[in-house]
Design goal:
This protein is α+β, with helices and mostly antiparallel strands. Helix content is 25%, strand content 25%. The protein has one domain: Jelly Rolls, CATH 2.60.120.620. It contains 6 helices and 15 strands. The relative contact order is 0.22.
Length: 281
């Protein structure tokens, strides 16, 4: 028995590359996160979009708090160990009756990390039913290595670059992972996953938080950033992120966030050396 997950749950994750659902918080607590997000949208004057949906823990206090949620981290620790970094925090929004979807892909195809042990916690702060376009995953696909990907950007693909597998497996229907608000799913970086459109009259809102153990390193320049949320980092492979800083002005917080997002997108999208950083220190 781990801190949160049972031995059976951990064995299921090892065999299938995902685990769902996992109870993390009450629906009432999830609703408070949703209210905080929607209050931020009112303050910004628009729905969450790029760039604030990327590395959201560096821009929004509530996202920083969600990334450090004790029960969420307990589950992640049961899978990757006690020394934990946040590599990314993505806000996945599907508006009511929206055609937006996510094509089949593997996170490892564009994270450029080794060893490939990254785990994403997908926390539902609104109900994510099948009709709302919940995530789906192909069980066991994480054991088959990295597949060839190609970019298919488009107005309905929520992945900014549009990464998707070049060739789908025969069993591409996958397993659905419906969640109630306050539940999360966990998936391995090599697990093939995606989602269909939201056909309901409510928003589908999820926090996709990508966690890695501190021994993970980058395979691509520039040197990436990450935020330590549990344990210690004796490896120092990543530039430390400070997280949300209440003492900063809104303008300074935005500037810090945008600088980190630019570096992140440079790694994800282009893979060339960032002009400000030719090689890792």
């Amino acid at each position: 028995m781990g801190k949160l997950l049972t031995d059976t749950q951990r064995a299921f994750f090892a065999d299938n590359g995902y685990l769902s659902p996992v109870d993390v918080m009450s629906p009432a607590e999830a609703l408070e996160f949703r209210k905080s997000l929607e209050h931020s949208e009112v303050e910004m004057g628009h729905a969450v979009q790029y760039p604030e949906r990327t590395k959201a823990h560096l821009y929004f206090e509530w996202a920083d708090r969600a990334a450090r949620h004790p029960r969420l981290l307990d589950a992640v620790e049961d899978l990757i160990g006690p020394n934990i970094l946040v590599y990314n925090f993505a806000l996945w929004m599907k508006e009511p009756n929206s055609p937006a979807r996510i094509l089949w892909h593997q996170d490892s195809a564009y994270f450029y990390l080794e060893p490939e042990v990254q785990v994403t916690a997908w926390l539902a702060v609104s109900d994510a039913s099948e009709a709302a376009g919940c995530m789906r995953v192909i069980p066991g696909s994480h054991k088959q290595g990295l597949r060839a990907h190609q970019d298919r950007p488009g107005p309905t693909n929520l992945i900014r670059r549009g990464q998707s597998v070049a060739e789908l497996p025969a069993d591409a229907a996958g397993d659905l992972m419906p969640l109630r608000a306050g539940q999360m799913s966990l998936h391995h970086t090599n697990a093939l996953h995606g989602s269909l459109p939201n056909t309901t009259t409510d928003r589908r809102i999820g926090f996709g938080i990508s966690y890695i153990p501190t021994h993970v390193n980058s395979t691509r320049m520039p040197r990436p950033t990450a935020m330590l949320v549990r344990g210690v980092d004796t490896f120092k492979h990543f530039i430390p992120e400070i997280g949300f800083r209440p003492e900063l002005s809104a303008a300074d917080q935005l500037a810090y966030h945008l600088a980190i997002v630019e570096l992140y997108r440079c790694r994800q999208d282009a893979g060339f050396d960032h002009p400000a950083q030719v090689k890792a220190a």
